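dumping this here so i dont lose it
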């Protein structure tokens, strides 16, 4: 992943990079579990001076946010400094509910 190399260049430690990689995997897995058939995931990475914002979006087959009591959500909360999910109303153009999982990791925060 290019973002991993970028995070390293921006001063994230190897442990922080590993946490970011695992959090990205978990965010994607969370959306895959609720995804509508034949849809794609999009990942957007925004690098700030001290943090990295990751936004994973896709289309859910049914209404409802990812289960915040799940093990996967616990992993996201543990590895990141902030995590949230958002879902829009049914969109007939994409045959589902546009859904986003977003998290932030602050560099150097223990």
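and the seq i came up w/
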């Amino acid at each position: 992943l290019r973002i991993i190399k970028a995070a390293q260049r921006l001063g994230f430690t190897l442990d922080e990079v590993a946490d970011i990689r695992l959090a990205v995997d978990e965010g994607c897995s969370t959306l895959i579990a609720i995804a509508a058939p034949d849809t794609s995931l999009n990942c957007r990475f925004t690098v700030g001076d001290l943090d990295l914002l990751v936004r994973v979006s896709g289309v859910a087959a049914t209404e409802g946010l990812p289960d915040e009591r799940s093990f996967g959500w616990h992993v996201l909360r543990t590895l990141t400094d902030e995590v949230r999910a958002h879902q829009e109303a049914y969109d007939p153009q994409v045959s589902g509910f546009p859904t986003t999982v977003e998290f932030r990791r602050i560099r150097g925060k223990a």
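The radius of gyration is 14 Å.
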